[in-house]
Amino acid sequence: MQFTVTINQVKALEWGLNSQQALLFAFVYGCPSWTKPIKTDDGIFFALSKAKIIEELPLLTDKPDTAYRMLKALEEAGLIELSSTANITLFRLTEKAIEWNQKLDGSEKYPTPPKNEGRKKIRSTSEKNPIKVGKKSEQGSEKSPTNQVTNHQGTNQDTSQDSQGSPDKPARNLVLVVDRTDAPRVEIPADMPGPKDQSCKTFKVWANYAMAYRKRYSTWPVWNAKVGGQLGQLVDRLGADVAHHVAAHFLKTSDAAVLRKCHSLNELLANAESYHTQWVTGQRINGTTARQMERTEANVSAAEQAAQMVLAKRQAGERNEYL
C-alpha cells in the first residue's frame, strides 16, 4: 500500500479532475518508474492491473470495475492512453500529462529516478554496511517519517507547482496529502440541492438518496427543512453507518404504494426498520411478493394442521386396540 500520495491541486483544477481522479492520476504518474513496459504494435505501454490499483490505493476503491472506470475518465481527460493484453490493462502518459510535474518555467521539478535505483541505494547501506543499521537517529530527525511510500522507489512525486510569493507573503503550498477515508466514491454534481458540507450529519444519507432518486426519476428530489429533519431522524434510528445504504436501497422498491408517492421520504421514515431488514437480506418486498409469502405461509399452516389431524387419528386408533 502506498502510504502517501501528493496531488498537484493547480493542475487537477485546471484539468477538471475531481478528488478521486486526481488521487488516481497522482499514483499513475509515477508508475512508469517501476512498472513493467510492454511493447505493442502502437508503441511502448506500461502494465497496471486493476488489482494493483486496489492494493496501492485502498482509499480510492475496492472494486476492479470502479478502478477501470476511473482510468477511462483519465483517458477522456487526455492524460493517459489505454490499451490491454488478454489479461492486463496497459497505459502510457500523454504529452499533456507531463505538465503534472513541471515548474512554471516548464522544467521538471523532481525527475523520476531510473528503475530500481532506489532499491540499489537501500542495499548499499543495509547489506554492504550493516553497521549503519540501528544507528541512533540524529537530533531533530524523525525515526518514523510521515512521508513513507511503498517499496517502489520514486513512485511518490512532489507534484506541486512553485507559486510566486512576496517577501511579506510566503508562497502558498499547493500540495494536498490525501488521507481521508470518508471521501465520496462518486463525484457529487454541483447542482445537487441540499447540504454541501460532507461533515454534516445528513450529507451522506441525503447524497445517496438524492443520487438514487435522480437515477430513477431523472430529477432531483425536493430539499427543504422538513426533509433535513426527516433524514436526521432516519440517521438516529438506523445509525450513521447504514442509513445511507438503506436510503439508496429504498429507491429500488417497486411497490405500487411507494411508486404512487414517488419514493417519498415520508414512506422511508415511517417504515425505516422494515426497509433496513430488506437491505440487510437483499429483498425488495412489494404487494405481489407479500401476497405470495402470505399464500405460502397459509399453505404451510394448512399442511401442518392436516398432519396434526392424521397424527391424532392414528394415536386414537392405537389406544382403541388396547382397550
Question: How are the secondary structure elements laid out?
Answer:
Blueprint: E1 6-8, H1 9-14, H2 19-30, E2 37-40, E3 43-47, H3 50-56, H4 64-76, E4 80-84, E5 89-93, H5 117-126, E6 175-177, H6 203-217, H7 225-238, H8 243-250, H9 256-260, H10 265-270, H11 272-281, H12 287-321
Antiparallel strand pairs: 1-6, 2-3, 3-5, 4-5
Helix pairs in contact: 2-4, 3-4, 6-8, 8-11
Can you offer a commentary on this structure?
- With 323 residues, this protein is of the alpha+beta class.
- Among the domains are: 127 residues, Winged helix-like DNA-binding domain superfamily/Winged helix DNA-binding domain (Arc Repressor Mutant, subunit A), CATH 1.10.10; 79 residues, no CATH class.
- The protein is 44% helix and 8% strand.
- The chain contains 12 helices and 6 strands.
- A 4-stranded antiparallel sheet has the order 2-3-5-4, covered by helices on one side. The protein has a two-stranded antiparallel sheet with strand order 1-6.
- A hairpin with a 2-residue loop joins strand 2 and strand 3.
- Helix 6 runs parallel beside helix 8.
- The protein is elongated, with a radius of gyration of 30 Å.
- The protein starts with 5 loop residues before the first strand and ends with a helix.
